[in-house]
Specification:
Blueprint (H helix, E strand, L loop, with lengths): L3 E6 L6 H9 L53 E10 L2 E6 L5 E5 L3 E5 L23 E6 L3 H4 L1 E10 L2 E11 L6 E9 L14 E3 L5 E4 L21 E5 L21 E4 L4 E6 L6 E5 L6 E6 L36 E3 L5 E6 L12 E5 L4 E8 L2 E8 L6 E6 L5 E5 L4 E7 L1
Antiparallel strand pairs: 1-2, 2-24, 3-4, 4-5, 6-7, 7-8, 8-9, 10-11, 11-12, 12-13, 14-15, 15-16, 16-17, 18-19, 19-20, 20-21, 22-23, 23-24
């Protein structure tokens, strides 16, 4: 068991000078309190934006508050502890009904973290993964009726004759929790590609126990245009049932030469996704290139623009395509970051343990090495906070059954942190 308290944050008071500076950051003449999606006011005045580094581009946002919104600070006294350690390149995690957390390790293992922070042995029986580059065993989802069917769903990078692809599989956790039984691949995101980047790969349940799956566009300039093509499963949010079939009512079922499974398209590499606890709307975060990391509200049939529009540039510094950020028929991100923070896992907070966080959106940052809290009002980001700054590259975040947040680091001998009170 690892339960060493590494940091306790008390943010219940602000220095007078900070309050004065924060108030000055509000729109001149605007005395209305900012409220969250649930109608509760944000108690803390907006502070200066948390991002202080110069942007990589001179692109202008499409609307006020699309980037570098004012900062907020949590007022509740929170406790941050090292909850577990010894994870080997963890990628995704999900709650088991009894409060334990199942974690994927990129090399191809499931492990279970119990309520005391102890790790199980590796669970066998999974199909082989290609763990080179950004590939491996990626996300995991626990079936809502797990207590009866013991079903797990997961995504991984699968070897094929034409390269690798993001695949979705399912299987049953054995009663002794040592094996996955009857593992089978239910969907493969084609075409395959001979590369090791941008598999996307987050899994989210819809309200009817179907699956949303995010896929990347595989990174290379030679294939990334497939994100705009409706006959390819790359750079998409997919909507499938638990057997891998398209969900009835998907937006392109009636369209010729389009994949029935596609829900939205024009994505680069979406690695974080969750549904809003009140509205049920699907939100996703995706990696931009150099800048232009995005938060998107996902709607059926919509085109999110990559690689035609973006707020980022190529890694070498040149524009992406025509270097435009807007085009008719393509959706604007709700929010974006420039420079890149490399957003990965994402989770809405639905609990009440830390009541001021209710319905806030939490995002892990790899390059940024922090956990982001986004306050949302009317489908707009109205406040941003950085937690765990400089501690590590963070891969995923999950609200536990106890109402705390659990955050996993990326890399070997990685830790899981618990944020609670």
């Amino acid at each position: 068991m690892v339960n060493k308290k590494i940091k306790t944050l008390s943010l219940s008071t602000l220095v007078i000078g900070c309050l004065v500076a924060a108030c000055a950051c509000r729109d001149e003449g605007n005395d209305e309190p900012i409220v969250q999606e649930d109608g509760n006011p944000i108690d803390t005045p907006l502070l200066p934006p948390v991002e202080t580094n110069p942007p990589n581009t001179n692109y202008q946002p499409a609307f006020e508050g699309q980037t570098r919104v004012g900062g907020v600070e949590t007022q509740t006294q929170i406790s941050i502890t090292e909850f577990a350690s010894g994870l080997n390149n963890p990628w995704g995690m999900a709650n088991l009904p009894d409060g334990r957390i199942i974690v994927t390790e990129k090399g191809g293992n499931f492990k279970i973290v119990d309520q005391s922070g102890n790790l199980s042995a590796a669970i066998g029986g999974l199909p082989a993964v290609n763990s080179s580059g950004q590939g491996g065993l990626l996300d995991v989802a626990v079936h809502p009726d797990f207590n009866n069917n013991r079903l797990l769903y997961w995504t991984f990078s699968q070897n094929g004759s034409g390269g690798t692809a993001t695949a979705v599989a399912k299987g049953q956790l054995s009663n002794d929790e040592s094996q996955i039984l009857n593992a089978q691949v239910i969907f493969t995101a084609l075409p395959e590609f001979n590369g090791s980047n941008h598999y996307g790969s987050r899994i989210v349940w819809d309200a009817n126990d179907n699956l949303f799956i995010s896929t990347g566009e595989r990174s290379s300039a030679s294939i990334r245009d497939e994100a705009q093509e409706l006959d390819a499963a790359l750079g998409k949010i997919l909507h499938i049932d638990t057997n891998g079939n398209a969900v009835a009512g998907n937006p392109f079922i009636v369209q010729a030469n389009a994949l029935d499974e596609i829900y939205s398209y024009g994505h680069r590499n979406p690695q974080g996704m969750d549904r809003h606890p009140v509205t049920g709307e699907l939100w996703a975060v995706e990696h931009g290139p150099r800048g232009g990391d995005e938060v998107n509200l996902i709607e059926a049939g919509k085109n999110y623009g990559w690689p035609v529009i973006t707020y980022g540039i190529e890694y070498g510094g040149s524009p992406v395509g025509a270097g435009i950020t807007q085009q008719s028929g393509m959706e604007q991100p709700i929010y974006y970051w420039d420079p890149s923070i490399a957003p990965c896992g994402a989770s809405f907070y639905s609990g009440s343990l830390i009541s001021e966080w209710t319905n806030n959106f939490f995002v892990t940052a790899l390059a940024g090495q922090h956990l982001i809290r986004l306050v949302i009002q009317g489908n707009r980001v109205v406040g941003e906070e950085r937690l765990l700054e400089g501690v590590s590259r963070f891969r995923d975040v999950l609200e536990g059954t106890d109402g705390a947040l659990y955050v996993i680091e990326s890399g070997s001998n990685a830790k899981m942190h618990r944020i609670g009170i």
